[in-house]
Amino acid sequence: MTSIALVRHGETAWNAAGRLQGTSDVPLNENGRQQARATAAILADSHWDVLVSSPLMRAADTATIIGEAVGLPVTEHLEALVERGYGKAEGITDEEAMSRWPDGNFPGMDSEETVTRHGMDGVNELRRQFPTGRVLAVTHGTLIRLVMSEVVGYPVDHIHNATVSEIHYSDGAWHGVQINSVPITPEHTGAMPS
């Protein structure tokens, strides 16, 4: 069985200001580093085989902090873990973006379908590389939200900074274990074939 813990990066100044980050490379703020250390302390209580990350600075720095706590180096920075691109809306607030583009279709934005496929390709590649492994993958909120929605079979609303959302692959399907560091109850579990 493959287990993948999808960890959202810690907070950035843009998160705190409500700005859309997407693929913009924004560093962690001090609160984000503290969040990463707190999550790292929790993750250190479990055994992990490998640690990978998105190459974007906020995820890579979160992964480095986690790696120090769990005793693992970041072995790879995977493009498959990069956040959804928000096109011309990157760097502005949600409110500004919606006032400019009320339909929510920001020019140059990646579609949810593209990001879901991209994220599922990423977790399936990790499953192939580590078929019996426990993988920590530090990535981004929208990518995690869409992957978890696909796996559990219902819309996941929001992924909070520095939380863990976990999936397991067994019996030919992905199964949701926790979202936002909260266990998924039996009546809400889903299975998604790879």
Automatic annotation (TrEMBL):
EC number of this enzyme: 5.4.2.12
Catalytic center residues: H9, E83
Binding site for substrate: R8, H9, G10, E11, T12, A13, W14, N15, R58, E83, R84, G85, Y86
SMART domains according to UniProt: PGAM (SM00855)
Keywords: Isomerase
GO cellular component: cytoplasm
InterPro entries tied to this protein: His_Pase_superF_clade-1, His_PPase_superfam, PG/BPGM_mutase_AS, PGM_Phosphatase
GO molecular-function terms, A-Z: phosphatase activity; phosphoglycerate mutase activity
Broad EC category: isomerase
PROSITE patterns xrefs: PG_MUTASE (PS00175)
Record carries keyword Isomerase: yes
Entry protein name: Putative phosphoglycerate mutase
Organism: Spelaeicoccus albus
